[in-house]
Every structure is written in C-alpha cells, then in structure tokens.
Design brief:
transmembrane helix, membrane, SLC13A/DASS, mainly alpha, transmembrane transporter activity, transmembrane, about 500 residues
C-alpha cells in the first residue's frame, strides 16, 4: 500500500468533541434516561462527522454501529443484545427497498431503455431544461395517487428517467462542464417527492397513519377522506410544483439552459436505437409490473390478501431480471452505490429508531408543548412555532414514518391545547410531515437513492433542502390557510 487515506483530523476531532460534550458535560434532562441521552450524543456526533466529511459516509456508519454496540446504550450490560440492536437497521425493509431500487435502475442503463425514455422526454419537452424539469414534475404527480411508496415512485421510477435525460445531455456526475445540468435535474427530481407525497393520502405510506391520529385526536370530529385531503392539498401543491424548479434554478442554474435542437436530435437518436430489444422489453415489463405492485393494483382488484409489500415487489423485479439474464450477479456486485447506501442508511435508521424507543423524542415533544404554552403567545404564533419545531426536528430522523409515529400525536395535542383550530393545525402538521422530507439526504427513502447517484454534494443538498423547506412552508401556510378557509375546513 503506497498511500494511506486516514480520517480527516479536524472534522473527526470536532465530531468527537461534540459527542463527548453531550455525553459527559451536558446534564441529562429530567425525564430522559442516561441511555437515551448518550445515544443522542452518538447520533449528533455521527451527523457532525457526516457533514464534516471526516470519512466516507459508509465508513462513518460502520464506526457508528460499532460505538452503539460497544457502549451498550440500547441494552446496558448485555453485549450480545446491544450488538443485535446495532445491526437491527439491516433488517429494515425500507433500507432494502432503497438498495434494491438502485440495483433495479441498473437495468435501464445496461439495456439502453433508460436512454430511450430520456430521448423520448427530450423529444417532447427538450427545448429548455426548465421544460424537462416540469415534465418530470408532471410525470411523478400523475402516478402519485396510486403509488403509496414515495421511495418507489421518486427513486425507483422517476430517478432512472432523470438519469437517462442527464446522460443524454452529456451531464455526468463530476463533469465540470455540463455536470451542473445533472445536478439541477437531480435536485428537482428529489424535491418533487415531498410535494407529491403531501398531495394524496395514498401518495406515501405514513399518510393513512396521520388520518388516524387526526381522528383520534379530535374524538372522531376531524375525519379526513381521500377527497377532502386531495382538495385541501390541490392549490398549495400546484403552486409549490410550479415554483420549486424555478427556485432550484436560482440556487444552482444548469450549464445547459436552452436546447432548441434537442427534440430533433432526440428523435434521430431514437431512430438509431431502432425497435425495442428483448432485454428492453423484459425491463419494460418488469417496471410495469413493479408499478402495478407498488401502486397496490392486485390488492385493489382482488382484495387485501393480494397486497404485496413494496420491498417484496422490488425483490420480485430484481429476481426476474437476474433469471432472464438482463442483469448478471456481477452487475449487482459492482453496484457500489446500492451497497454503500444500505450500510449508512441502516446505521442512521437504527439510531433514530432507538432514540424513539428510549423515549427521547416523546420527551422532546412534550417539553416543546409546555414551553410554548408558558410563553403566552397568541394561538396563531404558537401554532407556527409548533409547526416549525415539528418540521426542523426532522434533522434527527432518517424516516418520516418514525418521525410521525413518535411526534405527530404529541404535537397535535399540544397545538390543540394552545387553542389552534383543529382542522388548520391538523392540515399544517399533516402536509408538513411530507414537506419536511426535503431537508436532508437521509430524511426519507427516496433521498439516499438520488443523493447516491453523485450529482449533488452534501452541502448543495442541505442548502437546497433548507431553502425549499422555507419556500414550501410559506406557500402552504399562507396560500394553504386561505384556501382551506375558503373551502370551509376551519
């Protein structure tokens, strides 16, 4: 070995200092167990190391898993149990859905079907890069009502199309000349997902859970039907979907902005590709099957007994591609992004889940509600503050389902106690539960798939996520509140 590449000392030192300060110097708050507080120290230290790029993110994840196992914070005095806890993230079906989605997308690249789809989109909308962005937006929005897995939708269906379009424009990750075009399209690709997830009860898995929380929290008064939810989301969602590509353009403009000859060029490329090959037909059939399974079509037609878990569906699709020879096992082994994502996402999900299990998150929600109440603010200001705290606490979560399960009911109850109108508060928290996905590269399953494609750096992702969170919250809290008032919801 000619050259060692050790950990970067200053980011690693900063992350270590932060961890030790929280662990030893900051007193454990009343109502919080020492184990929960120590795990929080490890979690924050891990995030600091990731932000500072102390090591590659997968390597940081391995160190984090080791520290959870060795410190025994999840199971004091039981080393074997603590190790099982530390490795429990690898048994999470969502994590494997993410990895499998990345593997599945290799078939679009290998067979050329992805390029064919990309050229097709360019032929229709390719005169401007902004037009391509809105085309992706429209495509995801159209399938959102029937795709309960936002990960499958944004990461498994739309992302391969986006990559094919970027490749056809000559924009590859790390390309100093045209790479910014791929970066722009990748950021648009991801930021469609939180908005489309907020639009329909069936657009992401946790939304039905929110409906049940609203029903229970108001003793059956606030019963949101599919239609009520969709109508409430319609106007603010349309505004967000129109504005979002423009805001990202302002933040990170693409190198290629106008492509007047692109449609003709794309049509000529489609002619060169000729008719669909057998491998492309198989791949197309597999993705059509996956779309039906992810959308819950079998269960809708034949009953709940035919429901297929999204991760199981992804396994079915990948198995077909392997059995038919469209993909070889070497293709899967070479898919470094998938394996890397599985490792680091497993670590973050594991830590976030145990923060909830150890009671730290519920303590935080209760404390927040009490603190706001003591400020004596008007209910409107108190509600806004409550929503902001709910949204930006998502920095501590690697799963929207975990966040909603841990905090939604507590924050909804706190808001009602502060005097907020139930429907207004409920809708703001409900839609914010999807909009907060924009913040980080681990905030929901779609994020690591698109981030893992390499078009966007960590700093660019977090900056865009923060800006889009502010823009979306403004749109949904102002335009949304007026819209819901006009509809008579509150």
């Amino acid at each position: 070995m000619d050259r060692l590449t050790p950990v970067r000392p200053w980011p690693a030192l900063l992350a270590t200092v932060i961890t030790l300060l929280i662990w030893f110097a900051v007193p454990t708050p009343e109502g919080v167990t020492p184990e929960a507080w120590h795990l929080l120290a490890l979690f924050i230290g891990t995030i600091a190391a990731i932000i500072g790029k102390a090591m590659p993110i997968g390597a940081i994840a391995i160190v984090a898993i080791m520290l959870v196992a060795m410190t025994g914070v999840t199971n004091p005095g039981k080393p074997a149990a603590a190790l099982n806890d530390a490795l429990s993230g690898f048994s999470n079906a969502l994590i494997w859905l993410i990895g499998l989605s990345i593997m599945l997308s290799q078939s679009l690249l290998k067979t050329g079907l992805g390029a064919r789809i990309g050229y097709g989109f360019i032929a229709l909308f390719g005169k401007r890069t902004l037009g391509i962005a809105w085309a992706l937006t429209l495509a995801e929005t159209l399938i959102a009502p029937v795709t309960p897995s936002n990960t499958a939708r944004g990461g498994g269906i739309i992302h391969p199309v986006m990559r094919a379009i970027a490749d056809s424009l000559g924009s590859e990750p790390g390309n100093s000349e045209n790479g910014s075009t791929g970066r722009y399209l990748a950021l648009v690709n991801y930021n469609i997902n939180p908005i489309s997830s907020a639009m329909f009860i069936t657009a992401t898995a946790p939304n039905p859970l929110i409906v049940s929380f609203l029903l229970k929290g108001t003793d059956g008064v606030l019963a949101m039907t599919w239609g009520m939810w969709a109508i409430a989301a319609l106007l603010p969602a349309v505004v967000s979907l129109i504005v979002m590509p423009i805001v990202i353009w302002w933040l990170y403009p693409p190198a290629i902005t106008k492509t007047p000859n692109a449609p003709q060029f794309a049509r000529s490329k489609l002619e060169e590709l000729g008719p669909l090959s057998l491998a492309e037909k198989i791949t197309l059939g597999v993705f059509a099957l996956l779309l039906c399974l992810w959308a819950g079509v079998p269960a809708f037609i034949m009953g709940s007994g035919w429901e297929v878990n999204p991760t199981s569906a992804a396994l079915i699709g990948l198995s077909i591609l392997l059995l038919t020879g469209v993909l070889h096992w070497d293709d899967i082994l070479k898919c470094r992004g998938a394996w890397d994502t599985i490792v680091w996402f497993a670590a973050l999900v594991m830590m976030a889940e145990f923060l909830s299990k150890l009671g730290l998150v519920s303590w935080l929600a209760t404390s927040v509600g009490s603190s706001i109440d003591h400020l004596g603010l008007h209910w409107s200001v108190a509600t806004l503050l409550l929503v902001l705290l709910y949204v930006y606490s998502h920095y501590f979560f690697a799963s929207t389902t975990a966040h909603i399960t841990a905090m939604f009911a507590a924050f909804f109850a706190a808001g009602l106690a502060l005097g907020a109108p139930p429907a207004l508060l409920g809708l703001m928290l409900a839609f914010s539960s999807s909009l907060m996905m924009s913040l980080t590269h681990y905030g929901t399953g779609t994020a690591p798939i698109i981030f893992g494609s390499g078009y966007v750096t960590l700093g660019e992702w977090w900056k865009t996520g923060l800006v889009m969170s502010v823009v979306n919250l403004l749109i949904w809290s102002v335009i949304g509140a007026v819209w819901w008032r006009w509809l008579g919801y509150w």
